[in-house]
Amino acid sequence: MAVAAAKRRRGELSSAGTISASRASAESGGKRPFWRIRDRSLHIRLHPVMIPFLLAIIATGNVSVYAVILGSLLVHEAGHLIAARLTGTRVQRCTITPYGGEIDIPLFSRLPQKDRLFIVAGGPVATGILLLLAIGFPVPGQPLIISVQLVLLLLNLLPVLPLDGGRALAILLPGIRYSLILSSMVFSAAAGAAALFHLPGAAPYVFLSFFLFFQNVRHWRLRKYEQAVERLHGKY
């Protein structure tokens, strides 16, 4: 029965397109995976929207940009994960997205405010460190690496959900969260519409803008559920 359950679990993870630390452990002879928080595995996956996003970059002939962007996104998200681990917070899943990523933390709103801000700041801090390293140490493709870090850093500091700047603002001012979702929808839709006039070169920005728009639409539709969870468990 235990063998059957393990096979069924492995099949579920494979069909979902995730990378599971528990699966890696089983295939490597039962060794304890590095990324394990409170004895639960961390699942890392690429969001499906990354496929057209990266294809759009490749279609414009910027394959080197694709490699730098993907590497930078991984570093950015590693900053969030390290910050979560330093606070002792369990992370269930990490999803790489065009603007960095999303980490799934159960009942994130119940964490102390300083821990939530620390976790949110982890990504921009990691990007900032990479930016300083790229400026201080000459490497092949240095101008491209610096440009990508600047764009990623400035993008994530925008007060727009679900970017890090918007998340930090929602943590500091929880009363404006739903107004912030609406303003984020307007901003991302306007940015995407403006980018349409600069196709095909602006194709990645079109994907990014409308991805942010639909993310906010999803959060808006789930707001009643979030309110119910906060009433049930208490709100920090």
Question: What labels would you give this structure?
Answer:
10 helices, 6 strands, hydrolase, disordered N terminus, Peptidase_M50, 4-stranded mixed β-sheet, alpha+beta, 8% strand, transmembrane helix, 236 residues, metal-binding, 2 domains
Summarize the structure.
This is Stage IV sporulation protein FB. By secondary structure, the chain is of the alpha+beta class.
Write the SSE topology:
Elements: H1 2-16, E1 19-20, H2 21-27, E2 36-37, E3 40-41, E4 43-46, H3 50-59, H4 63-86, E5 93-97, E6 100-104, H5 113-136, H6 142-156, H7 164-172, H8 177-196, H9 203-221, H10 223-233
Parallel strand pairs: 4-5
Antiparallel strand pairs: 1-4, 2-3, 5-6
Number of DSSP-assigned strands: 6
| Biggest sheet descriptor | 4 strands, mixed
Helix-strand category: alpha+beta
Q: N-to-C terminal Cα separation, in Å?
A: 42 Å
Describe this structure in words.
With 236 residues, this protein is of the alpha+beta class. It folds into two domains: 36-157, no CATH class; 159-231. Helix content is 65%, strand content 8%. It is built from ten helices and six strands. It has helices at residues 2-16, 21-27, 50-59, 63-86, 113-136, 142-156, 164-172, 177-196, 203-221, 223-233, and strands at 19-20, 36-37, 40-41, 43-46, 93-97, 100-104. Strand 2 and strand 3 form a beta hairpin. The longest helix has 24 residues, at 63-86. The chain is globular, with a radius of gyration of 19 Å. Mean pLDDT is 77; it is low at 1-39.
